Every structure is written in C-alpha cells, then in structure tokens.
C-alpha cells in the first residue's frame, strides 16, 4: 500500500462520517487490513515441505488475502460511488483500474530487499564475503592499488 492509498483510506471516515453504509464497508476493510489472518489447511507448512512447496503455499495464502482485500475495497468504493451518484458496478471497480507493472515490480523488489536485510540482521540469512587481494586471489585486482 502506498502512502497515498493509506491517506485516501483514512479520509473516508472524515468525508463520509454521516454515511452509515460507506462507514460500515470501510470498517470491514479496515478490520481485514488490521487482522492477523490464519492460513487455510492447504496454505500451512508441513514438516518436510521443500522451499518450492513453501513458496507455493505462501503464494496461495497471499493471493487469497489480496483477493479478500480487493473485494472489500471494491465494496467500499462502490458504496462511495453510489452515494456520489456514479453508476458503476462492483465488478467494474474490482476488475478496473490500472497499476503500472513497474510500480508492482518496484514494490516487490523493495519488500524483498527489506526482508533480506531483516533476515540478515536476525541471523536467518548469511552474507557471503569474498576476499580480494589475497595470495590466492584470481580476480585480477592489482594488490598495489588497494
């Protein structure tokens, strides 16, 4: 979620404070966003799962959570649109919109980098180190330039 998206969500409560249907939909979305969700049986790691199996289960879990969030967001936006006189179906909201792939890629890469550094900090990941300039160095780096 971008800063702009969170800011817009936070304004709904202020802009539509007297619109019960909108506030109810917004609260369901916020409750979902603030809940630690349990995994369904097919999403739970089992002893002996390979990294590939764990990644698959993670993918199932996050796809489900994201689908639930998108559905709740579409319902919230639909209730807002109706209040403002727009004629649009929930499905159009759910399937509509445009997010550049570059933004998606950038957010995914940033999450991966943050997680890698956190794992490194907590000792769950190792940082490979290569010695350059030693007697057995074959990198071609001249020792006098170091």
TrEMBL record:
This is DUF6680 domain-containing protein. Pfam families: DUF6680. Residues 2-135 form the DUF6680 domain. InterPro entries: DUF6680.
């Amino acid at each position: 979620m971008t800063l702009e998206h969170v800011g817009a969500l936070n304004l709904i409560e202020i802009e539509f404070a007297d619109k019960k249907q909108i506030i109810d939909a917004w609260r369901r979305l916020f409750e979902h966003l603030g809940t630690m969700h349990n995994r369904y049986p097919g999403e739970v790691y089992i002893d002996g799962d390979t990294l590939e199996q764990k990644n698959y289960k993670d993918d199932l879990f996050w796809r489900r959570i994201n689908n639930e969030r998108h559905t709740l967001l579409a319902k919230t936006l639909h209730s807002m649109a109706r209040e403002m006189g727009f004629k649009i179906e929930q499905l159009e909201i759910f399937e509509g919109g445009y997010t550049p792939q570059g933004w998606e890629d950038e957010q995914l890469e940033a999450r991966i980098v943050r997680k890698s550094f956190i794992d490194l900090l907590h000792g769950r990941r190792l940082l490979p180190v290569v010695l350059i300039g030693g007697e057995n160095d074959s990198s071609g780096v001249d020792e006098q330039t170091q």
